[in-house]
Amino acid sequence: MSDKPIIFSGIQPTGCSTLGNYLGALKNWVDLQNDYNCIFSVVDLHSITVRQDATALRKRCMDFLTQYLACGIDGEENIVFFQSHVSAHAELSWILNCFAYMGELNRMTQFKDKSAKHADNINAGLYTYPVLMAADILLYQTDLVPVGIDQKQHLELCRDIAIRFNGIYGDVFKIPEGYIPKEAARIMSLQDPTSKMSKSDPNVNGFISILDDPDTIKRKFKRAVTDSEGEIAFRDGKDGINNLLNIYSAVTGQSVEQSVNEFAGLGYGVLKERVAEAVIEELRPMQERYADLTKNKDYINKIYTEGAKRAGYMAAKTLRKVHRKLGYVDR
Ligand code: TRP
Question: How far is the CA of 137 from the centre of ligand 1 (A)?
């Protein structure tokens, strides 16, 4: 890798990638790869904090990695790999557990949400999830972490742990910055536009999967929840319309204001149709590449094997430094 600054980001192989993930994360990553060395990981270790079916998980992990590549991430220029293939993640995670306070972890809103949702399985992994995320980031001396706004708290914890560790042992970790894309950071559910579009939404009409075919996309937008005012405007209280305008603007690259002007005087039906069309066109090239890639298993295999090798090399360097600082005898 050249000496460009380093980006690390991880995506959970749960559910399917949504339009929200695509506009909020994947699409940005593609732009970032020109200016940064990018390390992208399918965070399969994180995924078992909720129960998974083994066969389905294996398939989903492959699907996600393939989607990264289909979105235009260059797996040879960058590092794309499975988290479980680089054991340093689990190792550093243990160490950082000893530098994270229960009081800090108790405050994590995602933990509170998830334990409410999975009351029958509040496991310790769910609790220390943000520590593993910190390990992911700190292993690579990461400069920048592109994440959705919902991960901001975890990122701050990561910084706190790193600062604490450095305070005791000297400059071991680079303190990472968050990169939260301003536009389209929050694409909301089509069925409940007050909550984030989520791939784990049990109502499939709430989200657009990036692999949804054109008819499905049209149908889902047609059913999108709006309001009864009949006026296309962007303002508080018009969550459904705001969301559609946000999506349209993110996809077309124009400002929300421009979109509002474009639809002035038109009805909700037209808005829904045009948003659907724009989304279909946006996703089409990626979907075509995805179809090609799934036929080329050898290539995919080479990308993640090489990826893990290169990631492992970088991670080992940081872990060695940490071990020395802690006082472990050299291997
Ligand atoms: N927790 C992140 C999410 O749910 C996924 C993640 C794991 C991640 N490790 C990371 C994101 C490291 C950025 C950096 O979206």
Answer: 9
